[in-house]
Amino acid sequence: MDKNLVRATALATKSVIKDMIGWDLRVDGITTKKSPANQQIEMNVIITFNGQMSGAFILHCVEPVSAVIVSEMMGSPYEAGSADVKDAMGELLNMISGAVKNHYQSESDPFKISVPTVVVGTDFAVHVKVKHEDEIISLAFQHDGGGEIIGLKLILVSE
Q: What angle do CA 5, 134, 93 make, to 5 degrees?
């Protein structure tokens, strides 16, 4: 795994969340293992990328946390599961993906990003076709001021 990309992803996530909602996040863990199925309604926002490197960013949290995040971002209450929450979470990952590119130390544009896709539900898995040598890094972020947990998966696929 490209350590600079992992570092850029962690920095970008922390800085965008701090700028947009004022939360101080700390990396609560980094793993390459698949996370267990969540029995709560979960929101996953997916942005794929390709260029010098290819893969996906997947931002995920339980649905009530997504409503809290968007309510903090917008300065007014939003209902979990609403179209506004889905759109705002997509834009949040879009900002994080753009910030990753800014934090990543590269002479040229390392990748182009797709538009966000939002998946909401329980007992599902987001599958990105990967080969054995491809890498999946999961970053868990904990809100220092509360119990909210936000996850971001970084998947790099080989060409």
A: 45
- Of 58, 57, 54, nearest in space to 157 by CA: 54
Query: What pTM value is reported for the model?
Result: 0.86
Residue 142 CB contacts under 8 Å (≥ 6 apart), including other chains:
25, 26, 28, 148, 149
- What's the rounded Cα separation, in Å, for the pair 33 and 75? 36
DSSP letter, residue 76: S
For residue 105, what are its two tokens?
């130390």
> What digits encode the pLDDT tens for the residues 76-117?
999 999 999 999 999 999 999 999 988 886 667 788 999 999
CA separation for the pair 31, 136 (Å, rounded): 8
Going by DSSP bridges, is the β-strand pair 149-157/135-143 parallel, antiparallel, or unpaired?
antiparallel
